[in-house]
């Protein structure tokens, strides 16, 4: 689930007229044949031969299954403990370590060139496709054609559809047989066509970038992409810590700024294992399930995870997984307080919305906007402002 998939779940729906980023761009929705013709014209304007564009798009169809998948996402409603315990299984850890050993020379090459450590790449590889075992069986061209035609996010998916047509014209995508995720991602690290074109690396020297089958291409391409998202060489990304009971909770949270490792140390924060990094390094203290659950310092490289996927739960899990592959012990499960049910979360969001907070859609998802609003209300009510919504908070707000 790339940053694009996070946008599927977390951006505001764009209903109505699409953003016209290109003079040849046709409207979304409406007649499928008219939409197809508009995409053909745009692809031609972008340099794809007319016959190739027409041939590729002649196979594209609207998929109701894709639309139902887009409207039925539920993974984001899982808690950090629920998602991370399922995603970072002992089997997946073991296979990840085997990948690191088997392709050690490729990982070393990737880190020399792009500065991205092997465990970081491998964690994404494992989460995105279980190391290639689950790449999706949706026809890629149909998926992108469907999502671009749908008027919720045409500005996001239309460029990806054009890129898929370009890949087809070059023989890098088969309109009838290339499959992937329901939102159009392809390969073992689930990348969209435009990103494959922009960041794809031929890791094994065979003249092609084949992210569905060639592991060396997967590793090098992922490293190039992660580097382009802003990875900082030789710096950590996430570290589990232990915290005192009297922490100034208002300083915690993903969107706080100005705190360094040294600042947290002065407040009594210390590494659960090993030692903390350079005291001058900036750091945010994050608590995915509140102050009684696992607690981490998130360093600047954590922002790259957020670029890959905006979901806080997925992002924290991916970063934690990478620390485990790099040798960190399992997190302390601690004893987090019970969260809210789906109905209670929606009720909380409705209350917060009425109070003027921007929590986005009332969807039961504990996203960044809801967490920030919860933290502000906790502070106002004299509760520990850790951003974790509890029944106590909901009762006080009702």
Automatic annotation (TrEMBL):
One of its GO terms (biological process) is peptidoglycan catabolic process. It comes from the Bacteria. Keywords: Signal. Transmembrane segments: none annotated. This is Lytic murein transglycosylase. GO terms for molecular function: peptidoglycan lytic transglycosylase activity. The keyword Signal applies. Residues 1-23 form the signal peptide. Residues 342-397 form the Peptidoglycan binding-like domain. Residues 35-322 form the Transglycosylase SLT domain. NCBIfam families: MltB_2. InterPro entries: Lysozyme-like_dom_sf, MltB-like, MltB_2, Peptidoglycan-bd-like, PGBD-like_sf, PGBDSf, SLT_2.
């Amino acid at each position: 689930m790339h940053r694009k998939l996070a946008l599927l779940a977390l951006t505001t729906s764009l209903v109505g007229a699409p953003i016209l980023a290109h003079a040849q761009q046709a409207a979304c929705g409406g007649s499928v044949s008219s939409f197809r013709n508009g995409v053909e014209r745009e692809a031609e304007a972008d340099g794809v031969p007319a016959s190739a564009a027409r041939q590729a798009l002649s196979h594209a169809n609207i998929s109701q299954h894709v639309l139902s998948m887009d409207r039925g996402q539920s993974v984001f409603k899982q808690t950090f403990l629920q998602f991370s315990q399922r995603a970072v299984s002992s089997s997946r850890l073991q296979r990840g370590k085997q990948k690191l050993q088997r392709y050690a020379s490729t990982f070393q090459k990737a880190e020399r060139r792009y500065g991205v450590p092997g465990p970081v790449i491998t964690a994404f590889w494992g989460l995105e496709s279980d190391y290639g075992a689950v790449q999706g069986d949706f026809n890629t061209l149909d998926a992108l054609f469907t999502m671009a035609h749908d008027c919720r996010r045409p500005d996001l998916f239309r460029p990806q559809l054009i890129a898929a047509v370009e890949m087809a014209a070059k023989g890098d995508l088969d309109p009838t047989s290339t499959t992937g995720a329901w939102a159009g991602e392809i390969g073992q690290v689930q990348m969209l066509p435009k990103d494959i074109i922009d960041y794809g690396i031929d890791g094994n020297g065979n003249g092609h970038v084949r992210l569905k089958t060639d592991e060396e291409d997967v590793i090098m391409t992922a490293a190039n992409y992660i580097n382009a998202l802003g990875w900082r060489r030789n710096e950590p990304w996430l570290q589990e810590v232990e915290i005192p009971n009297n922490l100034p909770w208002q300083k915690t949270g993903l969107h706080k700024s100005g705190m360094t490792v040294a600042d947290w140390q002065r407040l009594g924060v210390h590494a659960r294992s090993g030692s903390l990094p350079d005291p001058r390094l900036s750091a945010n203290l994050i608590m995915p399930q509140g102050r009684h659950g696992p607690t981490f310092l998130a360093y600047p490289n954590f922002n790259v995870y957020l670029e890959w996927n905006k979901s806080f739960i997925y992002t924290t899990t991916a970063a934690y997984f990478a620390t485990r592959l790099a040798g960190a012990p399992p997190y302390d499960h601690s004893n987090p307080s019970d969260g809210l049910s789906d109905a209670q979360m929606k009720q909380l969001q409705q209350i917060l919305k009425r109070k003027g907070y921007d929590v986005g859609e009332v969807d039961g998802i504990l996203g960044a906007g809801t967490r920030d609003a919860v933290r502000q209300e906790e502070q106002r009510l004299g509760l520990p402002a850790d951003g974790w919504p509890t029944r106590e908070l909901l009762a006080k707000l009702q």
